[in-house]
Amino acid sequence: MSQQAAAGAPEPGRASAAKVWLLALGMFAIGTDLFIVSGLLPALGGELHLSTAAAGQTVTVFAITYAVAAPVLASVTSRLDRRTLLLAVLIVFAAGNALSAVAPDYAVLLLSRVVAGASAALYASTASVVAARITAPERRGRALAIVYAGMTSAIALGVPIGSAIGELSSWRRAFGFVALLALVTALGAAAGIPSVAGNPGLGVRERLAAVRIKRAPTAMLTTTLWVVGTFVVYTYLGTLLEKVSGASGADQTWLLLLFGAGSFAGVMAGGRLADRADPTRGLAGTVAVLAVVLAALGPALHSVAGAAVGLTVWGLVHWASFPLIQHRLLSIGGKNGDMLLALNNSAVYVGQTAAAVVGGLFAGAGLLGRLPLAGAGFEVLALVALALGARAAGRAEKGAGAPQPSAGPADSRC
Description:
Largest sheet: none
CATH topology of the largest domain: Growth Hormone, Chain: A
CATH architecture of the largest domain: Up-down Bundle
Number of domains: 2
């Protein structure tokens, strides 16, 4: 075994946990950057003399870049040492946010959002792979959960902190705050993250072909539908809380904090579940419960107290699914597991885009209060996609156990 491979071997529980929490800090920076911009749009648009629609394109550009860049960059950089890649990506991400902080005009701001979105996409998939590789197999679900606990923490803490910085000082300093978080993570990674080998035996074409792995297409579809189910509601949550719940601005702040707290608890619980249960069965269970929770959320939103309970449980159950999704993809993908994680990031953003469209159609038709029920319907569709993938895999396994008439290559599609 090479020194590099040995350095990336699983470490004892406490040693690896500290490093995984460091990776989570990077995800906290990315989550803050992802969610913070919406609250800064009025001040940003005012200073740069932009319309509301033009200012909103800074969010769109980041999201589209994230979705498109994730699988492409994961393929191009597959041969690089994972630690080296993490350091490079964090520095580029910090530079992108620093450029946002000093952007003199709209064109430079959009460019900075492209740089930040591309580097964020690559960091997310790479950090998950590193966390899995440096952690013992029986704790990998929890490691994946910790990494994405950084993202859920950003919902509860990062966004309010960034928005407060923007209100007290300037929207530019809020981006500077994100850049500082990325640099702190990079310094910690340089000192504490071990060398982890890439996959030098695969070219870009072979890596992109990972989508043809058995169960990969249905796994991506499951993720997309799961995301649509939650974000068709979350995208319009502020309007729902105001018009349906009658929540004031102050009420909405602490209600969103409850959703963030539930999300953090959920992702950690999902990590433990991923280590103890079959990921497919565990995912089916959490998605089924999520469908029920969303269906019940509609009536719950008719009071502030009901909304408080509903949002907490909703955040918990939704995010409990994510470590199970990732654990399952690593199992399905084998040596291409990091590629499937990158494709999964794209599926998440496809789902968020579709959710905004579907939610807009409901809002335009005056059916805003029906969004939770629509979300529950999409979760049922996610269950169907998951079941179809599991059924196809079961048939393939039975076929592999039977005598084969020829030695020809099996079809890798599902």
